[in-house]
Structures are given as C-alpha cells and as structure tokens.
Write a structure and sequence with these properties.
36% of the residues are buried. The strands form three sheets. This protein has a five-stranded antiparallel sheet with strand order 1-5-2-3-4. It has a five-stranded parallel sheet with strand order 9-8-10-11-12, with helices on both faces. It is built from 15 helices and twelve strands. By secondary structure, the chain is α/β, with parallel strands linked by helices.
Length: 417
C-alpha cells in the first residue's frame, strides 16, 4: 500500500492497518512548504532531499510497537531518560543486537532494559510518549507520501498500543493546537522570557523558577514537554496567555541540537550544509569528487572499501550517496540494494558511478534502488548539476590553490574516470 497524503490521510491509513490487523512498517515522507508561485508545495513526482522530514511506525497485528523519525539520533531518548535522572546511563550503554540496523533508538532502549538501568514500566512509558509525539507530528502533516510494507514485526515488543484511542486523543490535541496559532506555530519553537517582573508577579514562585530555567531561547516546547512528563498541548496551553501578552516570546533554536532536525507544523526546517558520501575504490575519483564538492560548499566524505561503507554511512548520515558499480568483494549494485532495504536510507538518493553506458545497467541500477547514475568519465559541471538536483546548492568558498588535489585536477582537466 502506497500513495500520497492528498489522496488519503494518515488517520485513514492507520485505521486500515488496525482493521486489517496488519504487521509491518509504515514510512511517511513529508513535503516542505515553499513560497513559490507553484501553489506552495513540491510536486510529489520530484525526489526531495533527505532534509525533508520522514517517519516510520512499526505494527504488530494492527497495533503500534514503536514510532519515530527515520533520521533520529539518541537525543529524544536522552530527553525522556532525564525525567528518571537516567540520561547519563546512555553513556554506559552499548546498542542491543535488537534492531540496531533500522532503529538505533529502539535498540539502545532495549540495551538499558537488559542492563537493568531502566525498569520495564519506565521503558513502556517512554515508548508510549515516543509514539504519541510521532503521531502528533504525522496527524499535523499537510502533505506527503507514504508506503506500508508487510513484514516481520520488530522484536521483542515491550508494549503494543491500540490505534483507535490514540487517534481520538491526538486528533483532539492537534485541533486544539491549531487554535493557538499564530502565536504558537511549532513544537520546536523556544520560549524566552521577555518580561520577568510581570511573569514573577503572575505565577507561583516555583512555577516561575521552572519557566525561567527552561525559557532560555534554546530549549524547545517539545523538549520542555519531555522534561516535565507532559504532552505538548499541555505545555503550549500553559504558556499561551503569557505569549499573547508579550511576556514570553518564541524563537527558533540556533543549533541542530536544539531542534533543527525536527519538522515544524506547516513550516520548513532549518537548512544545513548538504552531506555527500562517495564510495569508490579508485583514489583519483575520490580525490577529484571530494575537491569539487568541497569547493562548492558541500560536506564530503569518501570511502574506498564497500564493506566499510556499510557501517560508516550509518555514522555519516549522508543526504546523497555516490556509489561506484565495479568494486571488489561487494559491487555497487549489491551495496545499493542493501542500503535501500534499510529504513535509514529508504529515502536517501543513491547515484551509481559507472564506466558502463548500457540500457541493462541503467535498468539494473533502478531495480536495486538507485535513483540515477553518472557515466564515467564525467566533468565538473555534470557532477555539480547532479548533486544540486538531489540535495540543492552548497555554500561555495574560493578555491584554495594550495589544496593537494588542485594539481591533480588540472592534470585530469576535470574528466573523472
């Protein structure tokens, strides 16, 4: 089952999965809004860069096991552990063998349970909050695409949640949240105290002290809700009167750690430097690609061993992968297929680099999940056009004449083989 959210909404999709008692994974990709004259939405036929928000939900017999963002790190789990004064336990944890490939957050949560650093009741509470938070974002999503795939369940399960009561509760919260607009627009907005004197007079001292501690312009409403063990709407309603009066102001975080990787409801996420990984066993290709993209403002990493690439890309989390086809031990087709099967890279554009220029090779590249391919030798302009097509423009810097790759590129005349 797959389609566009303009054809069927998230609520109906979840109800169908519950009614059919399905086991599998739901992937949702959001479309960013824009201010262009083309109606404000990106066409669903255009492949979006990895910076657009995407989520997954795991089901067992029509009930939810776990839900989160596909690009999530451990910051959300660390926030939830804070309420139990256990956030430092993550420093001692090693990812469990349980589902680390697609769901590192879930694997680390199980690691804490296995090490008795977290009780089952605490783990269930954290999972329930994670699911609730994810569904709140999804039910607020105006546009996007989805894919549901039947499969084996995420195991083991700490808890399963019925969909119907969750939907009833969260849909009501989303509707109430919209009534707080335009004063409150996103759970990722950060409150900052604008008039401490009037706030102190209006609030009990303990409440003021709590608010003053968190309203620092760097802690988002979402994080405050996690820290206080409250849902986002409760926190939003509590501060709303003071935002209206101008005693509190809302800003957007200045760093990724403060929430730049989170989607805003109806807004665009903060931009960052696009990250590209090039996997090729040829030193000349790697050096040239790195030099060109680096000089045009991209963050570039190169990997010479396809086997090492399988683990390194999960640490690098690239927005685009350039992958050679002809490599020893593991060819590009096999590597691309393995990455594409992973939740973490299901939506990441993968472009094959090959010296072959045949129809069969193009078809095979598409079959294993590659979105495009570039035939060697290729020039600087071809490479830049392709990268810009999938991740946008970088932030170019003036060329460094002392860069070690400059001389090599002059000799190559930018014809990369």
């Amino acid at each position: 089952m797959q389609g566009q959210l303009s054809e069927i909404d998230i609520r109906s999709i979840l109800q169908l999965i519950e009614l059919g008692q399905r086991t599998g994974e739901l992937f949702v990709q959001g479309y960013p809004t824009c201010s262009s004259s083309f109606g404000g939405l990106v066409s669903p036929d255009i492949r979006l860069p990895q910076s657009t928000p995407s989520w997954f939900i795991f089901f067992l017999n029509g009930q939810i096991i776990y839900a989160g963002e596909t690009e999530s790190d451990l910051s959300r789990l660390r926030d939830y552990l804070r309420r139990y004064k256990a956030e430092t336990t993550l420093n001692r944890a090693v990812a469990s063998a349980i589902a680390p490939f697609n769901t590192p957050e879930y694997g680390y949560l199980w690691s804490l349970l296995e090490a008795h650093l977290l009780t089952p009741a605490q783990g269930r509470s954290i999972l329930q909050n994670m699911v609730h938070e994810t569904l709140f974002d999804l039910l607020s999503l105006p546009q996007g695409s989805f894919t549901f795939e039947l499969g084996t369940p995420l195991t083991p399960q700490l808890t399963t949640l019925e969909i119907a009561p969750l939907l009833t509760n969260i849909i009501k919260q989303v509707q109430e949240w919209k009534q707080l607009q335009p004063h409150l627009q996103s759970p990722d907005q950060c409150p900052v105290v604008a008039n401490a004197v009037l706030l102190r007079e209006a609030l009990p001292e303990t409440t003021f002290q709590t608010l003053d501690r968190y309203a620092n312009g760097q802690t988002s409403l979402r994080k405050i809700a996690r820290y206080l063990n409250r849902d986002i709407l409760t926190v939003a309603r509590a501060i709303y009167p003071y935002v209206q009066r101008g005693w509190l102001q809302l800003t957007h975080p200045s760093s990724e750690e403060s929430g730049a990787n989170r989607p805003s409801l109806g807004g665009r996420r903060a931009a960052r430097v696009p990250r590209v990984v090039c996997i090729d066993d040829g030193a000349t290709v790697r050096k040239a690609v790195e030099y060109i993209l680096d000089q045009h403002g991209y963050e570039v990493s190169t990997i010479d061993d396809p086997l090492k690439a399988l683990s390194l890309v999960f640490q690098l989390k690239p927005d685009l992968i350039l992958c050679d086809i002809s490599m020893p031990e593991l060819d590009g087709y096999e590597l691309c297929a393995m990455l594409h099967q992973s939740t973490a890279f299901r939506q990441t554009p993968i472009v094959m680099l090959t010296g072959k220029d045949g129809f069969i090779d193009r078809v095979k590249a598409r079959m294993v999940g590659a979105i495009d391919y570039l035939t060697k030798p290729f020039g600087k302009s071809e490479l830049l056009m392709l990268v810009e097509k999938y991740v946008g423009q970088g932030q170019p810097e003036p060329p460094d004449p002392h860069h070690p790759a400059t001389h090599d590129l002059e000799e190559l005349k930018l014809n990369i083989t």
